Amino acid sequence: MSSMQFKKMNVRVVRVPLRRPVIAGIGRFDEWPLILVDIESDAGLVGHSYVAPYRASAAPAIVQELRDLNNVFEGKEIAPFDMFEAGLKALNVVGLTGISMIAISAIDMALWDLRAKRAELPLAVLLGGTIGSIRAYNSNGLWRHEISTLQAEARALAEEGGFRAMKLRLGNEHVADDKAAIEAVRDGVGHELDLMVDFNQALGLGDAMRRCHELDEMGLYWFEEPIAYDNVQGYAQLAQKVRTPLQMGENYYGPRDLHTFLASGGVHYAMADLMRIGGVSGWLRAASIAGAAGVQLSNHLYPEISAHLLRVTATAHWLEWVDWASPVLAEPMNPVAGEVRPSESPGTGIAWNEVAISKYLVNV
Fold first, then answer.
1. What percentage of the chain exceeds 70 in pLDDT?
2. What are the helix and strand counts (H, E) for the chain?
3. What does DSSP assign to residue 352?
4. What is the per-residue pLDDT across 286-308, written as a single tens digit (0 to 9) for each?
5. 3-state secondary structure (DSSP) of residue 330
6. 137: left (phi > 0), else alpha (psi -120 to 50), else beta?
């Protein structure tokens, strides 16, 4: 496979509407900001990726960091691992978490898309795997809103893609409200469906001990992020006190964070967010760590690319399904019978709906 050079990068920001607003301890979001990255090579191929920084106000800082890295990479041979390391070295002096890692991740995903397109292979196949189905849970709803709406919403979420698993957000002020929310979902879809719950870091350690103990009997699949994501010692303590497995990792910045938590004994299940873990290159390193530890690894968001990576992850677990980027995708993914298949097109399968982008584009 002949080499390519990094010619130029184009960055755009859109704000797309959400079918169901995100309502959790982290805030309320009716629109979802996306930073779209296009990297053009001297061979005429273009690699695509996106990141979603939650807060639209954060987009200008990330865009500026991307433009800075464009100057670092311009004219360089497109080699994702080498460029990942070069990005880390370039931004080390300003810190390698937060905006720095988000920018590196966005570029890395687009570079891998380019690399796979050059090879005329889907990303999963380029990485040595195959295209096949991955079990998924629906994460498109069941936020912290009126409990009276959860039963009908759970039924709709199960039906829209044949899902047999979904995620509910908890962390209400009173445990009775959390229990009522769980019961409402069960009333809507039954007890056979796997139900994961996410607290979005809503609890302190002591309250988490009490709350998780009281919910341990409710047959939940996992407790996700009950306390602050960086409380390593707290998770280690909590892991020894509950029977329902703990899940966390969406806020890991780089593979070393995963290693730190695994070493602490505070993780039963892990997940990685491509925007934070380091894109494809960071995921592959994190997956090796999880595989060596025998810890099952799921994705957080970015299902289009995560589907490829789960196909080459030794301890692949669940795919978190959201359709939040679908409004600007030319070929959105469609779950069938609760499963998702990565795109069979060369690359990651991400391509833009330019008409939609022009509708949702914002100036930065």
1. 100
2. 13, 13
3. B
4. 999 999 999 999 999 999 999 99
5. coil
6. beta
User: For 4, which DSSP code?
Assistant: -
**What's the CA gap between 182 and 33, in Å, rounded?**
30
Q: Is 343 helix (H, G, I), strand (E, B) or coil?
A: coil
Q: What is the DSSP letter of 58?
A: G
pLDDT given for residue 25 in this prediction: 76
The first and second tokens of residue 184, run together, are 């409402």
Write the pLDDT tens digit of every residue in 334-352: 999 999 999 999 999 999 9
Q: How many residues can be counted in the chain?
A: 364
**What are the φ/ψ torsions at residue 335 (nearest 5 degrees)?**
-65, 145
**Which residue in 78, 67, 10 sits closest to 43, CA to CA?**
78
pLDDT digits (tens, 9 = 90+) for 68-120: 999 999 999 999 999 999 999 999 999 999 999 999 999 999 999 999 999 99
User: Contact, 194 vs 137, CB < 8 A?
Assistant: yes
Computed over its alpha carbons, how large is the radius of gyration of the chain?
20
- Tell if the pTM clears 0.85, that is, is over it: yes
pLDDT reading at 1 higher than 70 = no
Q: How far apart are CA 102 and CA 50, in angstroms?
A: 10
